[in-house]
Amino acid sequence: MPQAQLNLRERFSAMRNIRPFLAEIWSTSKSLTIAAVIIRLLRALFPIITLYIGKLIIDEAIRLVGVGVTDDLMLALQNGALNDLLLFLGLEFALAVANDLFGRLSGYVDSVLSEMFTNATSVRLMEHASTLDLEDFENADLQDQLERARRQTMGRMSLMSQLFGQAQDLITILTFGAGLLAYAPWLIVLLAVALLPAFIGESHFNAQNYSLNFQWTPERRQLEYLRQMGSSVETAKEVKIFNLNRFFIERFRFLSQKFFDANRKLAARRAFWGTLLSALGTLGYYIAYAYIAWRTVRGDFSIGDLTFLAGSFRRLRQLLESLLTGFSQVASQALYLDDLYSFFRIQPEIISKPNALPVPSPIRQGFVFDDVGFRYEGSDRWALRHLSFELHAGEVLALVGENGAGKTTLVKLLARLYDPDEGRITLDGIDLREYDLDDLRANIGVIFQDFVRYHMTAAENIGVGQVEDMTNRSRIEDAARRGMADQVVAGLERGYDQVIGRRFKEGVDLSGGQWQKIAIARAYMRDAQVMILDEPTAALDARSEFEVFERFKELSDDKTAILISHRFSSVRMADRILVLADGKVEASGTHAELMEQGGRYAELFELQAAGYR
Ligand SMILES: Nc1ncnc2c1ncn2[C@@H]1O[C@H](COP(=O)(O)OP(=O)(O)OP(=O)(O)O)[C@@H](O)[C@H]1O
């Protein structure tokens, strides 16, 4: 796991991420990677060749001055005195053109390659996120981590060019180093030593920057949230009524200002130390320069040598500096890669065992909750505890209970969105965990109270219930009829092809109850053995809910079903009713039996009935 504060060793240990990073680039496109490397390799040789030809030009010019050439240019050209000079100049020109061409070429290859890499990584990120548990998504730390990882897919594009650039610079440095070795070897050492402080400073501040970004991830997520709250269709209505815009803007301003201040302080310190430390590097360069000048004056070096050496040193200094700061940037970028890779390392816990069993078809006995206990992560309250009951194959069971009693949690456990912390759930006598997860989910159709409103066409909104049949219009129409969504669709201008939801231009919005009918139709898309309606009917008018449930009961004749509703008029249709309180079963029986018992059920039923009298 990446941490907020890192010591030097930890910072460099992040470099281990470079290898898998390069391996991924390689597997993104082998041919482009090879092209990028070859172009860089060639470009690496240009600087020394250019400088050396420059030296030859000066030496030749000085030689010509010494031997004396005629004033007449045409004559000089004709008798060949200028041949060498012209050849060198021509070469230098060709090099300059080629250098420019290769620069553009490598920019192009890099951008194509990194775009491909970014897309591939985004897809991997989505794929991995899709395997994670619901519990992972509910964890704020994971949300932070996902956010950081997401930023990385965009932010790491430059890392590739930088790494390749580093390799190129390194080769150029070696060529310069080899050239200079002959003249003044210890000056190279002097340059390297003088640059070291700047390098350490850079890498220190890069790590600080990373820590700052890391520590501020929750706030940055909050900023993103505030920005959305203030500007989305979904929130606009309430935000306007309560006049919350100012409140959101103020909060945004306050948070962003704090982040900005922290950032600015760091940037200022960085600028101060950066200037100071790089002045040391400059000093090293001028000492070297003075030395070469002195040797030239003494007659050890020619004027051409002087320009070559001075140029080499200047370039060498720039290159070393950019190599070192680049290296510290790469090291800090490698830290960011840690965010990406640590996200990929998160493993889901709810998975199918090897050789998992298929779900029995048909289900013979049904489900048994055997002393089940479940606690949400980070909560010390048990949402369910000592919960025992049976859901018989083919029965329609209704769950009632006050808010927070644990009804939805029970359903989530049944669909294995979570596993129980205590006790076990069996299906036909075998622990749910022994069954194939995909098969289990395929056999359970659940519509939750907070079902998703897809801003897509009406047909797609229903079709998502069985993705494989997304384009099977007759099946969709059939499901719509069963869920009573056909009347809703009939009222849409473009019928099943009408985009619903306000987010997109051609979309029309539906009423809460209409949305629910669409969602219920979604449940009918799936020919699941177990059907669960977790209160997706709250916004339906009384008649509609009654009809939905009546039809649901009829249509789930051969199915096992669970109904959750706060409306007792609907609940009483169930074969059996389970009253949940504080995470366990308080009573169970048919409507008549429960009324007879006169407990909480009878009390709540009377309360509701009285309301209608
Ligand atoms: N994702 C979650 N993380 C932490 N606690 C949760 C989560 N979801 C529910 N809880 C808690 O678990 C308990 C049971 O919640 P559950 O949603 O199962 O109740 P419910 O009976 O479906 O309520 P309602 O009638 O309001 O839909 C509640 O105390 C709730 O606060």
TrEMBL record:
<keyword id="KW-0472">Membrane</keyword>
<dbReference type="GO" id="GO:0005524">
    <property type="term" value="F:ATP binding"/>
</dbReference>
<keyword id="KW-1133">Transmembrane helix</keyword>
<feature type="domain" description="ABC transmembrane type-1">
    <location>
        <begin position="34"/>
        <end position="332"/>
    </location>
</feature>
<feature type="domain" description="ABC transporter">
    <location>
        <begin position="367"/>
        <end position="607"/>
    </location>
</feature>
<dbReference type="Pfam" id="PF00664">
    <property type="entry name" value="ABC_membrane"/>
</dbReference>
<dbReference type="InterPro" id="IPR003439">
    <property type="entry name" value="ABC_transporter-like_ATP-bd"/>
</dbReference>
<dbReference type="InterPro" id="IPR039421">
    <property type="entry name" value="Type_1_exporter"/>
</dbReference>
<keyword id="KW-0067">ATP-binding</keyword>
<feature type="transmembrane region" description="Helical">
    <location>
        <begin position="170"/>
        <end position="200"/>
    </location>
</feature>
<dbReference type="InterPro" id="IPR003593">
    <property type="entry name" value="AAA+_ATPase"/>
</dbReference>
<protein>
    <submittedName>
        <fullName>ABC transporter ATP-binding protein</fullName>
    </submittedName>
</protein>
<dbReference type="InterPro" id="IPR036640">
    <property type="entry name" value="ABC1_TM_sf"/>
</dbReference>
<dbReference type="InterPro" id="IPR027417">
    <property type="entry name" value="P-loop_NTPase"/>
</dbReference>
<dbReference type="Pfam" id="PF00005">
    <property type="entry name" value="ABC_tran"/>
</dbReference>
<keyword id="KW-0812">Transmembrane</keyword>
<dbReference type="InterPro" id="IPR011527">
    <property type="entry name" value="ABC1_TM_dom"/>
</dbReference>
<feature type="transmembrane region" description="Helical">
    <location>
        <begin position="271"/>
        <end position="292"/>
    </location>
</feature>
<dbReference type="InterPro" id="IPR017871">
    <property type="entry name" value="ABC_transporter-like_CS"/>
</dbReference>
<keyword id="KW-0547">Nucleotide-binding</keyword>
